[in-house]
């Protein structure tokens, strides 16, 4: 079993290129650790690397997040394309802002309640079992409501995003290649995301709905990119104008019908009660 330890670090080319410092000094000053695509299966004791801020461990065979209690200075953690099944043992990473966990086997988004600085969360392409979809723990969502700006949940069999509406500071949201069908539900969520700039829902059944693009642009007035296409201010103004005009016409029609109904009632009243 290949384990990421200080011994493995000592054999790395990066350390061998260093001149004039001892290995102990190197470990204490180490801020970036690159060990992607090294067949690593577990994280060993790295507690001497107290200044580590960025850890690259993508494209390995890691099954469990562990031994990161020391990593209080880590801001970026790249662990995509491993075999991780649960989001565990991240509570001490209090400075973590960017978390990359795409391409694993995670079925539930949980265990992030202590990460009060998390801004980016990438969970795309989980390798789920038949009939499974990515689920979200309500406590985790509430804990991220104020900080999370970017969320990527592409290709995870998701059919409803209503519970994500609490993430009121989202700026980028990608949920392409899922199973979203209800345009009404999506409209309601978008109205609760006033800062959303980028939205990607390509490959969902909802994309086939009549006036799908127009409806969601008018529901979210801050959008700049939608399904890979820029939303111009002129387009937004035109769609909002069309919507308001339609609303006024419908309102006017209701008043006209009401007046007609009133005249009709008076006519029948006169005929029945001469």
From TrEMBL:
Pfam families the UniProt entry points to: LRR_8
The UniProt keywords, alphabetically, are: Leucine-rich repeat, Repeat
List the record's Gene Ontology CC terms alphabetically.
Answer: microtubule cytoskeleton
For this entry, the protein name equals Protein phosphatase 1, regulatory subunit 42
Top-rank taxon, per record: Eukaryota
**Keyword hit for Acetylation:** no
The signal peptide stretch is none
């Amino acid at each position: 079993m290949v384990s990421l330890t200080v011994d493995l670090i000592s054999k790395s080319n990066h350390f061998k290129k260093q001149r004039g410092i001892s290995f102990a000094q190197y470990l204490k000053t180490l801020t970036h650790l690159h060990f992607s695509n090294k067949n690593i299966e577990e994280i060993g004791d790295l507690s001497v690397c107290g200044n580590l801020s960025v850890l690259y461990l993508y494209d390995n065979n890691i099954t469990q997040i562990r031994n990161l209690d020391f990593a209080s200075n880590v801001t970026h953690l790249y662990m995509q394309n491993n075999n991780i099944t649960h989001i565990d043992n991240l509570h001490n990473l209090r400075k973590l802002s960017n978390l990359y966990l795409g391409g694993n086997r995670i079925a539930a988004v949980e265990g992030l309640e202590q990460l009060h600085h998390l801004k980016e969360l990438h969970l795309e392409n989980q390798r789920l079992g038949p009939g499974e979809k990515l689920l979200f723990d309500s406590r985790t969502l509430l804990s991220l409501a104020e900080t999370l700006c970017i969320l990527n949940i592409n290709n995870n069999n998701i059919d409803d995003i209503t519970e994500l509406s609490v993430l009121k500071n989202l700026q980028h949201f990608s949920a392409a290649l899922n199973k979203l069908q209800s345009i009404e539900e999506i409209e309601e969520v978008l109205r609760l995301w006033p800062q959303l700039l980028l939205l990607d829902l390509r490959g969902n059944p909802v994309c086939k709905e009549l006036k799908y693009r127009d409806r969601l642009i008018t529901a979210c007035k801050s959008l700049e990119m939608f399904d890979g296409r820029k939303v111009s201010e002129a387009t937004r103004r035109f769609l909002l104008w069309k919507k308001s005009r339609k609303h006024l016409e419908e309102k006017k029609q209701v008043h006209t019908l009401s007046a007609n109904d009133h005249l009709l009632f008076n006519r029948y009243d006169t005929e029945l009660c001469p």
